[in-house]
Write a structure and sequence with these properties.
Membrane topology: Multi-pass membrane protein
Distance between the termini: 48 Å
Strand content: under 5%
Radius of gyration: 23 Å
Keywords: Cell membrane, Membrane, Transmembrane, Transmembrane helix
Protein name: Energy-coupling factor transporter transmembrane component T family protein
Order of helices and strands: HHHHEEHHHHH
Main location: membrane
Subcellular location: Membrane
Largest sheet: 2 strands, antiparallel
Length: 260
């Protein structure tokens, strides 16, 4: 079972080793976290917008998957504008809430950073199959097999958890216990899902242990995780995006190193 939609699976970025995509996401995120300024985030977001056209996601898939980021970014910016550190001229004030030129700039920088970090991360991992990622972490990064396979098994259960939640809701409606008391119904259904998840996790752990997944012996892998020219090119593009964003911000004089 693949977690990637068929139309995305054949895209160029979906065929890249997930380890390379992970390195790109971490590189861009680290570069943007080193400073809080508008220029570097805006430049990175502009470059990413051009590159995301090659992700293979349709417009509907893109907006559907990234909707939480589009909601979180303005909220983070608004919170910073209203309650962030004041500096510069006061634009608006109501009691202990004030909006200044500095808080507006800081809020815009935070909102752009949330978008510049969140959007490529979601898109990159939307084109990544968990099994391919586990193969890459185990063979390329040489992470412990028990850790990698345990994480993969847990991730595979997420889809089952979503199906269980829907089944629980339908079953409760069929029994007539989901007609009123929305808050109580939510907590009751969540507790039932927790019980089901614990039971399934225990059975899965026992089955994996019985099949030798808990062994400390060297492990073989069913599929080879290859790391070649395409992966190096993707990493180079990610490093270039981070470098250009930092370089433009430094040249514009807006670079504000957070650790300074």
């Amino acid at each position: 079972m693949s977690f990637i939609a068929p139309e995305i699976r054949d895209s160029a970025i979906a065929r890249v080793n997930p380890v390379a995509k992970l390195i790109v996401a971490l590189t861009v995120s680290l570069a943007l976290l080193l400073s809080i300024d508008v220029v570097s985030a805006a430049v990175a977001l502009a470059l990413e917008s051009v590159l995301l056209a090659w992700s293979g996601l349709s417009a509907r898939q893109f907006w559907h998957r990234t909707l939480p980021v589009w909601v979180a970014a303005p909220l983070a910016g608004l919170t910073t504008v209203l309650y962030g550190e004041d500096s510069g001229a006061v634009i608006w004030q109501l009691g202990w809430i004030s909006v200044t030129e500095g808080s507006l700039t800081l809020g815009l920088a935070i909102a752009l950073r949330v978008l510049a970090i969140g959007l490529p991360g979601i898109v990159l991992f939307a084109t990544t199959d968990p099994t391919d990622l586990a193969d890459g972490l185990g063979q390329v990064f040489r992470l412990p097999a028990r850790f990698v396979l345990g994480g993969l098994a847990g991730l595979r259960l997420v889809g089952l958890g979503i199906q269980d939640w829907r089944s629980l809701g339908l079953a409760r409606r069929a029994r007539g216990v989901a007609d009123d008391g929305g808050i109580r119904r939510l907590f009751g259904q969540a507790f039932a899902l927790l019980v089901i998840s614990v039971r399934r996790g225990s059975k899965l752990a026992t089955a994996m242990e019985a099949k030798g997944f808990g062994s400390s012996s060297p492990r073989t892998w069913a599929r080879a995780s290859r790391f070649g020219a395409a992966e190096i090119a993707v990493i180079a593009v990610g490093v270039a995006v981070a470098a250009v964003a930092i370089g433009v911000a430094v040249a514009a004089g807006s670079w504000n190193f957070v650790l300074a």
